[in-house]
Amino acid sequence: MVAADDRLDALANRFYDAAMGICGWDAVLHDLTRAFRAELAAFGIVGPHAPGRILHTGIDPALVERYLLCHAGRNELALRTEHLPAGTVVTDTGLMPKAEFRQTDFYRDCLRPLGLDSLMNLRAARHANGLAANLCLFRTPRQGDFGAEDIAAYAGLAPHLCRAVALHLRVAEADGDRRALVSALETLPHAALLVDGAANVLRTNAAGAALLAARDGLQSDRARGGALRARHAEETAALRRMVAAAVDAPGLGADGAEPLCLSRPPPSRPPLIVAVLSLGAAGASSLGLPPAAAALLLVTDPAHRPDPPSRTVLREAFGLTRAEAEVAARAGQGEEVARIAEALGITQGTTRLHLHRVFGKTGVHRQAELALVLSGLRR
User: Which domains does the chain have, with CATH numbers?
Assistant: First the structure.
């Protein structure tokens, strides 16, 4: 016998809370077992090319591991239901006689050790790649088999459960993308700032946070909503125009927009070099970023010169000659043509010729752009 309809309606709302992380799935699964007078419940996500995971209440972790290793997606019940669409509810007795069910390896390895004798499963999600999500309830012999009333009630909850599971999977995927992006940003050798269309800072890597804290040519104007501000008003206006242009023309990346130089307070130092990458109309949602995220600003400080990439890497990556690699490495650190020529013992004309060829092979047009390209190789 299942719980009253009003309790099931309240339970449906809890599914969405669990999907959004407002409460834990264990708590919801516990409520589900009480509503259907079951012993245990399990929320499993498995697939032919995925290790799988199980959220459960009261199941021995060793048995969960055995199930994932030996039976997930491959047991007798899974094989008989692999083509069923999301929203389908089945029981063990609906798939095979009880005597046959008790002879399966799945029953002997996973259910009998827990004193379980029957199950009712909801296919909550099914993807084209074979990944499946299931919400399964289990009963002991004393509790008896799941009957028609149980199946009807579970089927009534199915639309809510399917939507909640789809939301859970989407949130989990977005969170994974967000974590990957944050990790990638931290590996960049220069400051990275995620901004919205008005140049308000939404997220930074550690280098970006340090740059803003130093207020050295670029800062976040929190008094005006957190928008970026340069040292001079005309530079601030140019910066915000650059961001707005990238948002309006998302096909343009750092190679399609002129890098911007921002002056710094005395004592005199080379200006900061700012390049913009548009995230595109759907970039934020697809990358798990804040919905307002519109562009990524990459800020290079020419005064900060980490070790350049090795000449071997430069030659292999861009097909440079030995001489071109020497010029590229020094130019990427901001050295002027005269200093490069002096250091290498060649004329300035030869240096400019090598630099012109380096630009062509690396796909850039200016020394500042070359510095941005080579910075990605400094790992």
Answer: 5-178 (3.30.450.40), 188-300 (3.30.450), 311-375 (1.10.10.10)
